[in-house]
Write a structure and sequence with these properties.
Belongs to the SIP oxidoreductase family. The protein has 295 residues and is α/β, with parallel strands linked by helices. It contains 8 helices and 14 strands. A 6-stranded antiparallel beta barrel has the order 2-3-8-7-4-9. A 5-stranded parallel β-sheet has the order 12-11-10-13-14, with helices on both faces. The chain has a 3-stranded antiparallel β-sheet with strand order 1-5-6, with no helix packed on it. Helix 7 packs antiparallel against helix 8.
Length: 295
């Protein structure tokens, strides 16, 4: 196994973006040497030490590229966050403000000089070059990626945006050269109420004479039916959409259910990921198993 390539960032600033979003700026030698992927929703994975022992147990990579941890060690808690702004020697990471979240609580309490271990960035958004009509759908967790993606669009693109947030105070302004139309859904999703995103996507009329691309980022179970709609009902190829679960609602309950899951089922899921089959077919099968067991 090979060690995972990780870097260290030093907190050099923190500010509130909205009442529901806090921004942490990281710098330091490793950040100064960091290269952007150029993809608007690129993210880094943050690793947090054990809150009791302070031990930071990091993964290694096996021959297939999957992570493995030392036997008998508690893996470091890790979470993924979009790079909202990428400047020379600095990156900004935006965190949704909430309780009982390791990363959010860290972001709200961190001070200049604090350090954090992170993995280098990876991007997900992959719109075809001719995609001149794009739909962006997210909840509050997707706002940092949404903002950066919109900033990168050309003036020839028509952008439709649907965002659900707790209330109007969570809205953010965006800069873009694209022709932008945005709808804010207040009091929906975000762990406070049922999501309206699937209904919103189903209500869209996609232009038949345009090259369409859809980007979705929200709660894990919320995005599944949207993906099913695009992939199985509309029969779209995976090149026309990007669907990502950014977080899990009722995480403690989910983790209890996962912990109680039959080891054979966990092995089935792991085998699916390692099968080498088409990634979209594998995701279909994995999500079917997860849904069967309420995950």
């Amino acid at each position: 196994m090979a060690p995972l390539k990780l870097i260290k960032g030093t907190v050099i600033g923190r500010q509130m973006v909205t009442p529901g979003m806090v921004r942490v700026t990281l710098g330091g030698p490793d950040i100064a040497a960091l290269k952007t992927t150029g993809v608007g929703d690129e993210y880094v994975r943050l690793f947090f030490p054990d809150p009791v022992t302070g031990e930071l147990v990091l993964p290694e990579v096996d021959a297939q590229g999957f992570w493995k941890y030392p036997e008998g060690k508690k893996p470091a808690h890790c979470e993924c966050y979009t790079i909202r702004y990428f400047r020379d020697g600095e990156i900004d990471l935006d965190f949704v403000v909430h309780e009982n979240g390791r990363a959010s609580e860290w972001a709200q309490a961190t001070r200049p000089g604090d350090e954090i271990v992170l993995r280098e960035p990876y991007g997900i958004y992959e719109a075809p070059a001719d995609a001149d009509w794009q739909l962006f759908v997210c909840d509050a967790t997707g706002l940092p990626a949404l903002g950066r993606l919109l900033e990168g669009l050309a003036e020839t693109v028509e952008a439709r945006v649907i965002v659900e947030v707790p209330d109007k105070s969570h809205e953010q302004p965006f800069e873009t050269r694209a022709k932008l139309k945005i709808v804010w859904l207040h009091g929906a999703g975000n762990g406070i109420a049922a999501s309206q995103l699937e209904d919103a996507v189903r209500s869209m009329t996609f232009p038949a004479d345009r090259s369409v691309y859809v980007w979705v980022a929200s709660e894990a179970k919320t995005v599944r039916p949207i993906r099913k709609y695009l992939r199985h009902e509309l029969k779209w190829p995976a090149t026309r959409y990007s669907i990502t679960g950014y977080w899990t609602d009722k995480l403690a309950e989910w983790e209890r259910n996962w912990g109680a899951l039959d080891p054979a089922v966990k092995q089935q899921i792991d085998d699916l990921w390692r099968s080498g089959r088409d990634a979209q077919d594998v995701r279909d099968d994995v999500e079917a198993v997860m849904e069967k067991f309420g995950l």
